[in-house]
Amino acid sequence: MGKPDGDHGQGPPEITVSVFAPNSTEPRSYTVPKTTKVGELADQAAGDFGYQAGTPTLQNTEDRDLDRDKPLVAEQVGDGDELELVDIGGGV
Amino acid sequence: MSAWAERHSEWSVTLDLDVVQLQGRTAHPVAGDPVYVLAGFDGYPAVPPTWEFRDAETGEVGPFPAAGDVRGGPSIFHGNRLICAQWSRLAFGEHGGPHSDWGAETAWKDVRQGSHAENIAEMLSALRVHLRASPGWMP
Question: What was the ipTM of the complex prediction?
Answer without folding.
Answer: 0.89
